[in-house]
């Protein structure tokens, strides 16, 4: 009896999570896959016809937006690594007893809604706003200079919004580094730079990897930043998908584009994992 | 005559049958269980024919309304800024009839509202609202085509019959008000910020003026922006053809390529206009007035000489409403001349009740100071009571005969707004 219970335990523990994923991930994904292969319109209904043209048409019409999204996602991720790594490093090694305070401060903006934070950036960066208004009146920037409605604004917004997701996993990885390893490096006459490059950096890579995973994917598929901070030539694929779903009610094209994006991101992530030499993506991400 | 609802029955039958046929073929071919599972996810849709004769319409009305009684409550879904937040009109209604009203400003735009209620209406479930306000256009047409709206019993609409302006009783999108009566109308014209624009814009050409490079706002909605492209070329949207759309799209593309357009806005153009991020923009008439009143800005609105778009937001009852009798009573209540006048004083959109003008003028005579000036402005405003010449310049959205036509239209203009 107790042996039976013991062998059932793992399944029982898994049950809530599995059920959750089955209902809220597997079923919607299957429905969306089905939708992407349907044809019709909202008045007459959609029927399953193996209509893979939605993929062909979607990609040929919107490849610019797909590429733009990947580029924006990539740049924002790079910016986050450059900004986030020193922050994570500082909190992990120099934070002392106030570590949790710093982490809390890092998460503080998250108490405000994502959209609201982006809109406040729009206020801050507007052509005659808090930043550019004084600069323009001092004559430091030309009158027709603007930040909003440029690629830089959208990439900056993405980097800002997802930054904590980059810092936290990096912090976790850095925090776990045993100080004795660093002492050992010094005992072996490694300089500070050498210690960093040959000990700290390699040990922090799983954290960077997890950070990239958690920021590149949502940044690439985001549509809020492009619609609030962007202009005419900053439309991302997320905006197109939203448009196809909600405005055109063209569910097949929207679903096909979503799947295309999902496939591209998965391929990208596995290629990236290979390049980093970590074969087991999921294990690394879970650390 | 353009009748968007009268679809060619042969075409409709042809489309549905071919699709059914294909589905059957898959079944016969014995597709894998996975394939069938995927196929089972099809989205239901069902076209409903508009009644073809008045007798048939009358019998539909009788069929629906017979046995329905007053329940003492209405759930009303409307757009933001479409009523004084203190809701004096609704309080008066409750006082007069004993019917309580739950008023929610839940409709932000037509597409997402449609996307939200469509699955429930398709399943025959209540959407928790008995009365809603939807703009004429694609989604209104779809609500009618799908048979989601209650045919109105005009015997229950005495105020509407007596007080509605003639043009609001015979709108091309719902002739004879079978399913809807107007809440308010508005214009899409050009708004500008006089702080940055010295010479007031008078024509569409001003939106193409290289002087305003990077400072012009356009709307992302296909129908809105298409109309401006068509007006700029002197084409009436209602009679426009696919060739006209291509020409208008080329004109709009030219504006985009020249870097004149700052952004294609969904509806958040008014703050950037007030802040100076954009200097002139496509805009809805009432927005400009309300912004001026609430924030003390001095934005201006003009109807360009080539023409502008007039649209109508309409009250309607969804088929699954639980309190239709209370809802239709409330609809009619807003056609009381006094109620219509007070509503227009606040929202500043075109009221479908012309006699409301006298009510506002009378209120202005009684009022003093700033209120008096404001009310006088409203009662003489061409944005609330357009003159005959104004109306002559105003055009509606294009009505589509088939979903294919609509899809074509969308793809032509979205190639510009979402590139």
TrEMBL record, chain A:
Main location: membrane
Entry's localization field: Cell membrane
Transmembrane segment boundaries: 12-35, 70-91, 103-125, 145-174, 195-217, 253-273
One Pfam family per UniProt: BPD_transp_1
GO CC terms: plasma membrane
InterPro entries per UniProt: MetI-like (IPR000515), MetI-like_sf (IPR035906)
SUPFAM superfamilies with a match to the protein in the record: MetI-like
GO terms classed as biological process: transmembrane transport
Domain of life, per lineage: Bacteria
Keyword Transferase set for record: no
Membrane topology: Multi-pass membrane protein
Keywords of the record: Cell membrane, Membrane, Transmembrane, Transmembrane helix, Transport
Domain ABC transmembrane type-1: residue ranges: 66-272
Family indicated by similarity: Belongs to the binding-protein-dependent transport system permease family. CysTW subfamily.
PANTHER family tied to this protein: INNER MEMBRANE ABC TRANSPORTER PERMEASE PROTEIN YDCU-RELATED, INNER MEMBRANE ABC TRANSPORTER PERMEASE PROTEIN YDCU-RELATED-RELATED
Protein name, UniProt field: ABC transporter permease subunit
Protein's organism: Microbispora catharanthi
